[in-house]
Amino acid sequence: MKRVWLTSALLGSLFCSVTGWAIDSVERFGADKPVGGEIKSVSKTEVVVFQKVGNKEEKIPANEVISIEWDGEPAAFGLARGAEAARNYQVALEQLTEAADDAKGGDSKMLADINYYMARASAKMALADPAQAEAAITRLKGWLTANRDNFRFYEGQALLAEVALRSKDYVAADTAYTSLSTAPWADTKMLGQIGQARAALAQNNLAEAQKIFDTVAVIDAKTPLEAARKQQAMLGQASCLQSEKKYPEAIKILEQVIEQADADESRILAEAYVRQGDCLNALGQNPKEAIMAYLHVDVIPSLASEVDLHAESLYQLSKLWGAVGQPGRVAEATAKLEQLYPTSEWAKKLAPGT
């Protein structure tokens, strides 16, 4: 199917170069093919695409936009998206800086998107390296202030909250999560609730966290995005049970999440496997089962792209391989963690006495 998209996009691009029509391409969550046309306007709630054929406008809800390939965008922007997908965030930042320079004086909507990608790459680097959190938070706040009516606004708030929560800036995290409640979509509101529950759990307010997770987990999901939020709430329920050392109960919920989650939900699946490994490890009955859970995050590329969870899984593998008589695999996991995530909290835990 994707090959058909590319062929259609290429033909459309060649045709439009002759006619002079602008073609932007919007990849939409849950859609079989992108929406092509000229982006006439964007707001925090939608992207409006004008389609010459049929002389019509299509309004795409902002929460359904995955990415946009802009007509006439700098080549470096496309390269940067590829680098980000491959977890080469530093390379992506360099290419995005080049793209931003090339885009100056052009479409302001495209330039805002390039700048958002820069903020997002910085945030993803910070998730693996807490030392970069302050700079990432500053960049995200700057982008949000300058782009309050951009289709990436709520996505940016969620990302800001995640980085702030990871760096234990609970005030900034709560403010960002609370802002999601103003969104018009149920899935975004659910994400804000889940975030507030995660912040409560991080501050050892188990009762409050459990109450919110339980509330979201029983919502009747009407869209794939809402289903994903339900699964995130279930992960929260499992984390609460894990905190109470109720490992079999937590494992049962995690198995449901793994069974139900869409293959594209890499974050949900990666977290589910890591928490499953934690619970199996805590039970101490069969280290091989815990190893298998953590290995999912190491060997499946989409799951390994969740860099903080990948680093955590490598750390746990470095501790568990020895329990099954595999010292070579201990060295392999340790070396991989130190090479890929040298400044992460998990690499630091490898040092004696930490």
Walk me through the structure.
With 354 residues, this protein is an alpha+beta fold. Among the domains are: 1-72, SH3 type barrels (Roll); 184-256, Serine Threonine Protein Phosphatase 5, Tetratricopeptide repeat (Alpha Horseshoe), CATH 1.25.40. It has 17 helices and 5 strands. The protein has helices spanning 2-19, 75-85, 89-103, 108-128, 133-146, 153-166, 170-179, 186-202, 206-217, 224-243, 247-260, 266-283, 287-299, 301-304, 307-320, 327-340, 345-348; strands at residues 24-28, 35-42, 46-51, 56-61, 65-69. The chain has a 5-stranded antiparallel β-sheet with strand order 4-3-2-1-5, with no helix packed on it. A hairpin with a 3-residue loop joins strand 2 (35-42) and strand 3 (46-51). The longest helix is centred in the middle third of the chain and has 21 residues, at 108-128. The chain is globular and about 65 Å long. The termini are far apart. Mean pLDDT is 91; it is low at 1-20.
> How widely separated are the two ends?
49 Å
Main beta-sheet strand count, sense and barrel state: 5 strands, antiparallel
What share of residues are in beta strands? Answer: 5-15%
Note the run of SSEs as H and E: HEEEEEHHHHHHHHHHHHHHHH
> Would you report the number of β strands?
5
Number of helices: 17
Low-confidence stretches: 1-20
Q: Structural class of the helix and strand makeup?
A: alpha+beta
Task: Kindly report the average pLDDT value.
Answer: 91
Secondary structure: elements and pairs:
Blueprint: H1 2-19, E1 24-28, E2 35-42, E3 46-51, E4 56-61, E5 65-69, H2 75-85, H3 89-103, H4 108-128, H5 133-146, H6 153-166, H7 170-179, H8 186-202, H9 206-217, H10 224-243, H11 247-260, H12 266-283, H13 287-299, H14 301-304, H15 307-320, H16 327-340, H17 345-348
Antiparallel strand pairs: 1-2, 1-5, 2-3, 3-4
